[in-house]
From TrEMBL:
Source species taxonomy: Bacteria, Bacillati, Actinomycetota, Actinomycetes, Micrococcales
Protein name: CCA tRNA nucleotidyltransferase
Cofactor(s), names only, from the UniProt record: Mg(2+)
Keywords tagged on the record: ATP-binding, Magnesium, Metal-binding, Nucleotide-binding, Nucleotidyltransferase, RNA repair, RNA-binding, Transferase, tRNA processing
Pfam family, one: HD
Entry annotated with the keyword tRNA processing: yes
Documented EC number(s): 2.7.7.72
CDD domains reported for this sequence: HDc, NT_ClassII-CCAase
SMART domains: HDc
Molecular-function annotations in GO: ATP binding; CCA tRNA nucleotidyltransferase activity; metal ion binding; RNA binding
GO biological process, one term: RNA repair
Family matches, as InterPro entries: HD/PDEase_dom (IPR003607), HD_domain (IPR006674), HDIG_dom (IPR006675), NT_sf (IPR043519), PolA_pol_head_dom (IPR002646), PolyA_RNA-bd (IPR032828), tRNA_adenylyltransferase (IPR014065), tRNA_CCA-adding_enzyme (IPR050124)
EC class (word): transferase
Classification via PROSITE patterns: HD
Length: 475
């Protein structure tokens, strides 16, 4: 439960933050109001780490720029038309925005900018009550016109005004509800949830880039599973990622879970846990987390009822990879993320052949070669994909993966298994065979690569012998 006494003390600490204190004095000396607003205030009350500092003021953009210039090393006014001036103060990036009273046209989702005349009016136009609090500085006074503190105590997300109006102004706020549920561990208030269910179709007017940004931010939180449940339960995910909810209808092939959807959420959570164990200081791996969530989206499309009541999902890895890449392209994800997610989904079943019987060194080399730069992510995803409640089977699979990782480490000590190339390059192939660049060089390169994968390093002399023998057979 929120300790208000401790929270208010932390607000005092926030007011004394060097950046806050510097700006508070500058605006006070200019006869203007200033308040820290939104996330920093919420997080201070919750005892969470405060990151980006946002401010609001009664000063107009030109005046904001004049006030901050003497106390900042850099300024930028790219958001001037919307009342926002950015600056770097004592090494930290901040944004200061004039009180706003804007609304949206309901078609393009572009704001019609109108500057407001009060802090309270500015706060009521924000997304949720827990983000609609401000700390006036330098006097250190909490301003909470919509009951944000009460909602912090209750652990709920509620819009400051009628949710139909709030979401009508900006439909992306519906997606933010899921993100903040994941970030804060809060529940979406009943009326707010009902409005999302009713208005979810209006998300279509929001650009794919903005939707994608919210997905990424949600996947970076400590509990994205919670946010995903909000998206699916309200039907909002159907508007931009319908493949997730589609998995709820399918029975998992191993009959370990009620449906593929629940299995996928378990895999996502286990992948996050493994990610933190193996790389505790790394940033959240969004590509890995998306791959974990979507690794089985090919199952509904490949589902087949077999004799005796069995269910199969043949080639759901390949089908799912194509589906995921197509969906991420529509959401305007970057090429690197799309390729990573696609490769992980396509390869996520490969390991289970190893669990059935030890591979040759050749098979291990090919596993490493096919995974490429995604090998560590594939390790995590494959381990996370074990959700059986049969402890004996779980131990067997864990032991098998320990073994394959040990085999890969041993091969790395003996040879450059992560960058497998033939013993001869293209120029050497041409010299040995006495040929010029063309398709034959490519065929010879492929032949030597297969030898390298099958037998390990041969050395140039042996490779030349094998190449010449192969060439004579081709002739």
């Amino acid at each position: 439960m929120l300790n208000m006494a401790a929270g208010l003390a932390r607000l005092g600490d926030l007011a004394q933050h060097p950046v806050v204190a510097t700006l508070a004095k500058a605006f006070a000396d200019a006869g203007r109001d200033l308040a820290v607003v939104g996330g920093p205030v919420r997080d201070a009350l919750l005892g969470r780490a405060t990151h980006d500092l946002d401010f609001t003021t009664d000063a107009q953009p030109d005046e904001i720029l004049a006030i901050v210039t003497p106390v900042s090393s850099t300024q930028w006014d790219i958001g001037r038309a919307f009342g926002t001036i950015g600056a770097r103060v004592q090494g930290e990036q901040v944004e200061i925005t004039t009180y706003r009273a804007d609304s949206y046209d309901g078609v393009t989702r572009k704001p019609v900018v109108a500057f407001g005349d009060s802090l309270e009016g500015d706060l009521t136009r924000r997304d949720f009550t827990v983000n609609a609090m401000a700390l006036r500085v330098p006097e250190v006074r909490l301003v909470d016109p919509t009951g944000g503190v009460e909602d912090l105590v209750a652990g709920i997300l509620r819009t400051p005004i009628d949710p139909a109006v709030s979401f009508g102004d900006d439909p992306l706020r519906m997606l933010r509800a899921a993100r903040f549920a994941a970030q804060l561990g809060f529940d979406v208030e009943e009326g707010t949830r009902a409005a999302i269910e009713k208005l979810r179709g209006t998300l279509e007017i929001v650009s794919a880039e903005r939707v994608q940004s919210e997905i990424v931010r949600m996947m970076q939180t400590t509990d994205p599973v919670r946010g995903i449940r909000v998206l699916v339960d309200t039907g909002l995910s159907d508007e931009f990622l319908p493949e997730i909810a589609a998995m709820k209808l399918e029975v998992d092939e191993h009959h370990h879970h009620k449906d593929v959807f629940e299995h996928s959420l378990t895999v996502l959570q286990q992948a996050i846990d493994l990610e933190r164990q193996r790389h505790p200081d790394a940033e959240p791996d969004v590509a890995l987390r998306i791959a974990a969530l979507l690794h089985d989206i090919g199952k509904p499309r490949t589902r087949k009822l077999e004799p005796g009541g069995a269910v199969s999902f043949y080639h759901h890895d390949v089908v799912g990879s194509r589906m995921a890449k197509k969906r991420l392209q529509k959401l305007k994800f970057d090429t690197a993320t799309i390729q990573t997610v696609g490769k992980l989904i396509e390869l996520h079943l490969r390991f289970f052949g190893y669990a059935e019987g030890a591979w040759t060194d050749s098979a291990v080399r090919r596993y490493v070669r096919d995974a490429g730069d995604e090998l560590e992510r594939l390790h995590i995803l494959t381990r996370a994909d074990v959700t059986t409640r049969n402890q004996r089977k779980a131990r067997r699979l864990a032991t098998a993966y320990d073994d394959i990782e040990a085999r890969i480490a041993e091969l790395r000590e003996r040879e450059e298994v992560d960058a497998i190339r033939p013993d001869l390059d293209g120029n050497q192939i041409q010299q040995v065979l006495g040929i010029t660049p063309g398709p034959e060089v490519g065929k010879a390169y492929k032949f030597l690569l297969e030898l390298r994968l099958d037998e390990g390093p041969l050395g140039e002399e042996e490779a030349e012998k094998r190449l010449l023998l192969w060439w004579s057979e081709q002739s």
